[in-house]
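Worked example

This section walks through a single chain of length 297. The input is the sequence exactly as stored; nothing has been trimmed or padded.
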Amino acid sequence: MRVLVLGSDGFFGRNIVAALAGSHEVIKGTRRPDVSEGQHYIELSKPDNIVAALNELQPDAIVNNAGVVENSDKALMNPVMTTNLLEAVVKIGLQPKRIIIYGSAAEYGIVTEKDIPVKEDTPLNPFTTYGKSKVQETAASLKFRKVYNLPVTIARIFNPIGVGMGPRFLISGVLRQFHGIKAGTREAIEVSRLDAKRDYCHILDAAQAVKLLIEGQPKEAIYNISSGVSTSNGEIIELILAYSKLEQRPDIIETAPEPEPLLATQADISRIREEFGWETKRSVEETVQEIIDAEKQ
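Given that input, the structure is written out below as tokens.
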């Protein structure tokens, strides 16, 4: 199968490419004009460029890794870019087997105790700009699925972590502070709240889940993808402390005076597990150890 991977040079894109490369013909899409060998320039903010690229490449499946992950007004481009992509598919009459659009735990936003673990049909209540943009992106995608019968599947991935992840992630930020302590430029670790929790998923496990959605016949429109385990910031810091082997335990300072509202801190993954037999193989403990080991090399 010819699979077009948009945003192929990002954290998730690189791992999707690796997961698919052994069994599919992978077409790498990037928004960078100075493409390297084997890449194709596809800018989702430019509809004509998308149409031309799809006409040329004729993919059998599309995975959209492109998008804005920061919580700013830039994220409002997420639904625009995905709409441009799906409009281009309709315009040229392309009939791919599968189109994967990424959702996010941020779509669920603030939840209640009875909602935990959150299912795919849990009411969406985003409170961040990024979360709202992803809700709009999902809604637009599902509209194309319904109106044009496009084979769109939403992979609602929670918090992917692993070697090569970006600096915005909690683990990356804490590790930078640990390096500062070792270098003598910091005296303490700062974190918003030790009791704040998230559901983390190893990037390789998440990539395998997406591969299954591409190759299979998903019965549903949306699938949660994560570990199904809730882990606090405090637990993450203790893992890093244990694996980093500092000579002296640093002070840990909470910067937020109040607990955060109850968010989607644990995913219900029964849908994808029951339909595809998928679940994570790598624990948070193993993943943190892997990240720290990679930094030492």
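What to look for: The longest strand covers residues 98-104.
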